Amino acid sequence: MNVLIVYYSLYGHVAAMAQAVAEGVHQVPGVTATLRRVPETLPAEVIEKMHAAEAQKTLSTVPVCTLEELEDADAIIFGTPTRFGNMCGQMRQFLDATGQIWMRGGLVGKPGGVFCSTATQHGGQETTLMSFIQTLLHQGMVVVGLPYAYAPQMRIDEITGGTPYGATTIAGGDGSRMPTESELEGARFQGRHIAEITKKLRG
Hints:
The chain is an alpha/beta fold. The protein is 40% helix and 18% strand.
């Protein structure tokens, strides 16, 4: 069984979380993870001005997702940075191209989940995940979050991401904060959790 992990990452925060999600998926026997990114929509000169050119060179080694791969997957987990409390434009444009898949019910019954990154602790993690989940529901997917069985999301001894709607991380206003081990473990938990549910539903 194949769990497709589709994400957009500008500086590498969401990519790091995606890798952790994949590690969690691979902990379930008989289930593999495939990493894919959505197409970039920003011009190269804009990426250069945002000081993201070097990061993008590294991230570009992951293939761009095709619409066919969405239908072929047994489950899909999406990852996005937050833009004003919502998913990024690159992800929105990619999802807006799935109209034909929606019309033929290509994703109905597939487990799906979301994880994200925000600049600040209260920068829209839950609104991003919840608004993203609306698209999954319209596609008929079975939404799977990050249950409180992953107890570290309730910790108060350090600032950390993690919501029942999906794994999250905090990048910091200048992007200098990378995902902590607690946040990465939350992503692994979500990946493993979705893989286990996929195995039950599709097996």
